[in-house]
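Methods, example record. To illustrate the input and output format used throughout this study, we show the complete record for HTH-type transcriptional regulator YwbI. The sequence lines were provided to the predictor; the line carrying C-alpha cells was produced by it.
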Amino acid sequence: MDIRQLQYLIEVARLKSFTKAADALYITQPTISKTIKGMEEELGVVLFERSGKRIQLTDAGQIIVNQAQQIVTSFHNLNAELDDLRNLKQGHIRIGLPPMVGASFFPKVIGQFHNRYPDIKIQLFEDGAKKVELDVANGLLDVGVAVLPTGQEGLSNIPFVEEKLNLVVHPTHRLAVNREAKLSELSEDPFVLFREDFTLHDRIIAECVKLGFQPHVIYESSQWDLISQMVAVGLGITLLPETICREIDEEHVRIIPLVEPVIPWELGIIWRDDRYLSFATREWIRFAENVLSDKG
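The corresponding predicted structure is encoded as:
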C-alpha cells in the first residue's frame, strides 16, 4: 500500500463516488475501482458498502480512512518541509474561499501576492464556509476563509472583517419603507437563502428558531447575485452581509438594517494550528492580513 492508494481512498470517501473521485484525481474510473478493490483484498476487509450507484464507508473503511488522512498529512508535511529547504521562493497553496467572499476581498490580495511571488502557485477552491472549514481541518486545504467562530477544533484564525446582516426585500414589500426591521416580522415571509454548506444558512435559521418560528425557505443558492435577483422579482426575502449589499443594484430591491436581533458576520483566515505550514502558506497568511488590514 502506498501514498497514492491512500489518496485515492480518501477522495472516494470524501466524494462518495468512484466516478467523481476519478474526475477529481484526473484518472479513469476503472483505475480507481481496481485500486480500492486491491486494497480490500490486501487488508482483508470491505471498505465501502455499495448500493447501486451509492457507496458508503463501512466501519472498517472509516477506521482506515481516518488513519490514511493522518499518513497523507504527514507525507505532505515532509514534502513541504523539504521543498522549503530546497527553494524558499517556490511552493503551492490550496486556498478555500466562499463565493461571496472571494470577489469582494481577495482579487487585490491575490494580484499583489502573485506580483511578489510569481513562482508560487495558488489553487483556489470555491465552496461554502462550512465546507472550507471542514477541508482545512481535514488537511485538504492549506488555508481558507470562514465565518467566525469556527465549529472545527484545532483551527487558528485571523479576523479581517466584522459586519452584520441586512434585510433585502422587494420594493412592494410591506417593510420596504421602514428604516429598520425585526426578524420576528418575517415569520410569514418566504426566505431565499444560501445553501446548507454556507454558515449563514444555519445561522439565519437558528436565529429564527430562537424567536419561535421555522423560516419557510423556498429557494437556496450558492450565488448571492442570484439570491438578490430572486428577491428583485418578488419571490421572497433574504438576509445578506453589508459587503454584499453594497454590491446590489438597489433599483429593484430595498435594503433595510436588521436590528432585532443583530446577526453578526465575522470573517477570518483559518488554518490548522497543529500542522506544518509551508513558507508559501505562512507568507500568504502574513501578506493577506496586511493587505486586508490596509483595506480596512
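Annotations derived from this record:
The chain has three domains: 3-83, 84-160+267-295, 162-265.
The radius of gyration is 22 Å.
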